[in-house]
Amino acid sequence: MVAEIICVGTELLLGDILNSNAQFLGQQLAQLGIPHYYQTVVGDNPERLKKVIEIASKRSQLLIFTGGLGPTPDDLTVETIADFFGSPLIEKPEIIEDITQKFTQRGRVMSASNRKQALIPEGAEILTNLTGTAPGIIWKPRGDNLTILTFPGVPAELYQMWRDVAIPYLKNNGWCQGIIQSRTLKFWGIAESTLAEKVAPFLEMKNPTVAPYANHGEVKLRISARAESQELAQQLITPVETQLREIAGLDCYGAHEDTLASVVGALLQKSRATLSVAESCTGGGLGQMLTQIPGSSDYFLGGVIAYGNAVKTSVLGVNLDDLTQQGAVSSIVAQQMALGVKTLLKTNWGLSITGIAGPGGGTATKPVGLVYIGLATPNGQVESLECRFGQTRGRDWIRRGSASSALDLLRRHLS
Amino acid sequence: MVAEIICVGTELLLGDILNSNAQFLGQQLAQLGIPHYYQTVVGDNPERLKKVIEIASKRSQLLIFTGGLGPTPDDLTVETIADFFGSPLIEKPEIIEDITQKFTQRGRVMSASNRKQALIPEGAEILTNLTGTAPGIIWKPRGDNLTILTFPGVPAELYQMWRDVAIPYLKNNGWCQGIIQSRTLKFWGIAESTLAEKVAPFLEMKNPTVAPYANHGEVKLRISARAESQELAQQLITPVETQLREIAGLDCYGAHEDTLASVVGALLQKSRATLSVAESCTGGGLGQMLTQIPGSSDYFLGGVIAYGNAVKTSVLGVNLDDLTQQGAVSSIVAQQMALGVKTLLKTNWGLSITGIAGPGGGTATKPVGLVYIGLATPNGQVESLECRFGQTRGRDWIRRGSASSALDLLRRHLS
Lengths: 415, 415
Hints:
2 copies of one chain form a homodimer.
Chain A lengths: L2 E6 L1 H4 L6 H13 L3 E7 L3 H14 L2 E5 L10 H8 L4 E3 L1 H13 L13 E3 L3 E3 L8 E4 L1 E4 L2 E5 L3 H18 L6 E9 L4 H7 L10 E7 L2 E10 L2 H19 L3 E4 L4 H11 L4 E5 L5 H6 L9 E7 L2 H6 L5 H7 L4 H15 L3 E7 L14 E7 L5 E7 L6 H20 L1
Parallel strand pairs in A: 1-2, 1-3, 3-9, 14-15, 14-16
Antiparallel strand pairs in A: 4-5, 6-7, 7-9, 10-12, 10-13, 11-12, 16-17, 17-18
Helix pairs in contact in A: 2-6, 3-4, 9-14
């Protein structure tokens, strides 16, 4: 029983978008223990799509399609699949109803072209799309030896439909022979190479395997166990996780779905403390990270985006002499920003960021990538951390890295 | 004369890495005007790779392989291709010499396993790799009706070899019949289906083609022209772009690399005006978007993240009675937030967002997805916009959509 991924979309062939859906599905199939040997990308062209279906349906038993479910004329996936297997398309009133409802919720009226999204092959089940208008299908066009799943190309919709519908379906229909379970530990403040050396023997293990990853300054260790059941896989993973956490200490900030913001949030909630932020070069990115967490209003009261220097002095009360003498990107200004916002918003903690994100604005003494993080503690003390992200990283990287480093500084204080 | 992309690597099937090579090659082929209809990903498995070669060599005349050129036993691309076409492998002394040299430069000795990288099919040319040890090949295994190019999976090496060797080769061998040039128009405030209906006749065009796609509330129209030269392609695109812009009016906010933030930034700069923001449910996301643009400090002074209601009243001067009677998510509070931040930061414009991003906090009268955007204009007038994103979108979508809608409101005022 082998799966195959077929991504439909001329924009993929033209390279207008990166095929992240194939990566997502590949990871998911691996975790479910469903082997897949081929991935195909084909444009919005019925004849070529049919050729792909012909090839894939001979060598694989589970065909997973993404893309081409939209309302526009070039969205042809479902009708082409139906046509290939010689099945008529049936309009499903429940889909019409669902689409109409979604448009109403958004204060819009369903356009005629959306009607085509309600057409699915005879005998196919609806693969419900909770977020978007395009539903997918679950269809066995020729009995039990071939199953077809279709998903929209929009990643967020694919993820939700895969998680809520596809995974349960595949598990209940005997697709998952044994499973591969993974647990990802997350680290901040340690280089991938350094961590890899610290845990070198683990990287040689066969089951579970331990593999390091790094992106945007965050380092991850993925522990993957192959076993008959989730319980048995967990029994393989847990002791390894425990040992890795011991070795890494505070550099390991969490696992799996944890983010620096969610971990900091949990710690603040536990200590019944409140936080405010003062942001210069991140321009709101730190607050944005913190408020990604539902319920963050329990501990995060808000902040000041002090992008211009006038805001630093007038709103946050940064000392003008310090600002002019030390410069906006300095330890003293970072500390005064943190204390200023803590005082203004009456919070227990105040966290600040000021730095040079580039591409312009760097000097010999203060290069692009130099960032100061300020922290004002509940007892009124202030401190700062100097980060040098280097000039090659790029503006987005430096801004994201700055916000993460700020969260990490607070995390270590709260831990 | 059609090309096809074949990416070899089990790590791609497992989703350990994103297939950015396919995107790069897709863009490159489009720019060179070489049509390609299929992309295939296959693991490091000779039998399956042979099946892929068999299929691809029947339907395409230029096969571009990436991956599987390394020194390790699982790198099998070249020998599998040679095997499929029944050609022996020849060890090329110049490759051995090149690899040895590269190791010496790095103060290392060539390992035995690297020897296999010097083996290429009889009659194949070497596709020189300046940076890495793995060379590619240019090979016509059965005369002029099939050309094979192989590249390493390492993106940097692929890019250099493609630029320095492949492009000149393809141009000199008559592969580049004209070029394909694309231009993408970007829209906000109109549904994909609605726009598609407005421009329906254009979607039927053959050259240039016009294709719509949508992501996170943003709709795009891609105009792609095939022509002998960039100039001629531009001549096909320009009139269509003009007509589409006329039909769409202000719903079209820009093209190509434009973002709502960059367009708003340019308009503010043009009018020498300054902006500040007051954010509740977006928690800094609007400021973060604005400051993604280098040089945004020319017009964006900063803002207040008024996540807690106390901050709305104490820092932004929102009227407590209005807040308690109308609620934090209301038109009046949005307006007072906008006016408050404009006054506090002494800017020409003040832009605010207050809404319910969910998943919690929704009521019958104020459901999740209800967002009010406030705008204070240079002459001191205030207005607000009500958005209903629906309850199914999810927190991140609603927050991103809110920030984009706020930028769009300001954009329409500045336009």
